[in-house]
Amino acid sequence: MKNAWMKGALALGALACSAGASWSQSASELPGMDAVMAVRQLSHSDVNANWLQYAADATLASQGWTESNTLKEGLLLNETVVLPGVDVASEILALGLQPQPQPVAYKTAHATYVILAAQGIMDKWTGRYIVNAQARLK
């Protein structure tokens, strides 16, 4: 009976190890990298080899913006750019929009607003993105 328990524990351990291997992923599968690849016309191998170079853009595309139906009082509105609002993550990157010291809102063609997070917040989020990506890519 003891031998059966040992075999079961070993089998369970082997299963856990193989499942852990499937949790790892390639850098091109990280959040936001699809938008970076599309806009920068990068291949999977380009991103996998140089993902750290694109981490800030991927963070901006995946986490650095929100869409709202209303504009909060006091929020800076940039009226020189109107986003189509179809694929906002790619549109932000394609237009070269960058976080500013304070959050900035942009109008969309759908009468909504896209708000980019402030640079200080984006720096923190990019740092966390890199730490999480390093853990995922092991």
Q: How would you describe this protein?
A:
With 138 residues, this protein is an alpha+beta fold. The chain contains six helices and four strands; from the N terminus they run H-H-H-H-E-E-H-E-E-H. It has helices spanning 2-23, 33-40, 44-50, 55-63, 88-94, 119-136; strands at residues 65-68, 76-83, 104-108, 113-116. The protein has a four-stranded mixed sheet. Strand 2, helix 5 and strand 3 form a beta-alpha-beta unit. Helix 2 packs across helix 5 (88-94) and helix 4 (55-63) packs across helix 5. It is globular and about 45 Å long.
Short account of what is shown:
The chain is of the alpha+beta class. The protein has six helices and four strands; from the N terminus they run ααααββαββα.
What is the chain-wise order of helices and strands? Answer: HHHHEEHEEH
Across the major sheet, the strand order is: 1-4-3-2
Q: Enumerate how many helices there are, as a single number.
A: 6
Residue share in helices? 40-55%
Structural class: alpha+beta
Average pLDDT rating:
88
Give the tags.
138 residues, single chain, alpha+beta
What is the fold's blueprint, element by element?
Blueprint: H1 2-23, H2 33-40, H3 44-50, H4 55-63, E1 65-68, E2 76-83, H5 88-94, E3 104-108, E4 113-116, H6 119-136
Parallel strand pairs: 2-3
Antiparallel strand pairs: 1-4, 3-4
Helix pairs in contact: 2-4, 2-5, 4-5, 4-6
